[in-house]
Amino acid sequence: MKICIARSERNSYSETFIRDQLTGLSKLAEVYSIHTSRLPERAEDGTRLSPLAFWLLHKLVKSVTGIRNNFFSHYGLKKFLTTNKIDVVLANYGLTAAHLMPVCRILNIPVVVIFHGHDAGDKTLVRAYRSRYQQLFSYASAIVAVSHDIRNKLIALGANPEKVTVISCGVDTQKFTPAPQTKDKIFLSVARFVEKKGPLYTIRAFHEVWKKYPHARLVMAGAHSGFYKKCKQLTESLDMHEAVSFPGILTHDAVAQWMNKSFAFVQHSVTAPNGDTEGTPVGILEAAAAGLPVVSTIHGGIPQAVRDGVTGLLVKERDVSAMANSMIRLIENPALVSAMREAARKHVVEQYDQQRQITTLFNVIAAAKSSRPV
User: Fold this and answer.
1) Which of 57, 212, 253, 278 has its CA 20 to 30 A from that of 191?
2) Cα(369)–Cα(374) distance, rounded to whole angstroms?
């Protein structure tokens, strides 16, 4: 089977789950990939799908009309998919799938689309793409949601419930493994500095912890963009510049190392004003695989990834005091932490192992191929 995996960016540092998807599916099928822009323009090696003249004409048409889907943009896609005899297109994010769908329909190629979060929740995007989504829902052979919350949103938008299946991203449970429990009280956050990740709430909650336990530390890894300046300013205004560090973007290996040095993982996910929400955060799954108790919120797919009171502690969105109290509770209850470490690892291995999730996704793709009309 030949699968073409599509995504809007080639090397987004925060999308390790797509790179893992490429690697995992390549072990089960012949995989090609396209990327760059909502309507992908380049092959995996960076070469343009369309000849330079067609690519420039596409850019001109798009700049004048605002239309991504046009003869010149479709030309290279059609050629790539037909030349490589693609059986199924797997599109990451609903926006990309919506633009790929017309080309796939012309070529009679099944589409499997994965909705990851903002593509199902961002009010502005959903409003702009409502008509395209209706066509996508009708044509797609399968619709994958990475959490039950996203599945419900897609059904509310008009997707056929029988087509929508929940397959969250998986975690490499061989890379993320527990280390001996540390005595240092390091709370770790690995996330983009964007509103839905709630970094300012995490800092405010940690401030309450720090006032009681000044030896505690907060490490917030992620690109120094978005809300980063606000987070830095808040940390300085609270006089916590020595207690909170921002190491920037970390490699996968470095993330695993930090998790082995940390006491617990924290992420205060919230629904942003524009409706943007989480799916099932990979950072939380990786932390659990590493045996870290997780303190987070009742949001998106987190309640399935974190069993409240068993593998971690969950609070309501924007409840800073409850988050602080949960962090303090972990510091003051070593036995609880030990029990959660073991339970967190067990839960992720049983429910979110990467190979298990990739195999489930592959079976969905295979079913889409077998249902392809002749």
Assistant:
1) 212
2) 11
Contact assessment for residue 323 and residue 205, using Cβ atoms and an 8 Å cutoff: yes
CA 164, 166, 171, 172 torsion-angle sign: negative
Q: What are phi and psi of 338, to 5 degrees?
A: -60, -45
Do residues 258 and 125 lie in contact, with contact meaning Cβ atoms separated by under 8 Å?
no
Residues sharing a CB contact under 8 Å with residue 138, sequence separation 6 or more, in sequence order: none
Residue numbers in the chain where pLDDT is lower than 50: none
Determine the pLDDT at residue 19.
Answer: 87
d(CA 23, CA 29): 10
Record the pTM. 0.89
Domains in the chain, start-ordered, CATH in brackets?
A: 2-170+354-370 (3.40.50.2000), 186-351 (3.40.50.2000)
DSSP 82: H
Handedness of CA 323, 328, 329, 330 (dihedral sign): positive
**If DSSP codes are grouped into helix, strand and coil, which group holds residue 143?**
strand
Strand pairing partners for 312? Answer: 294, 308
Q: What Rg do the C-alpha atoms of the chain give, in angstroms?
A: 22
What is the per-residue pLDDT for 153? 95
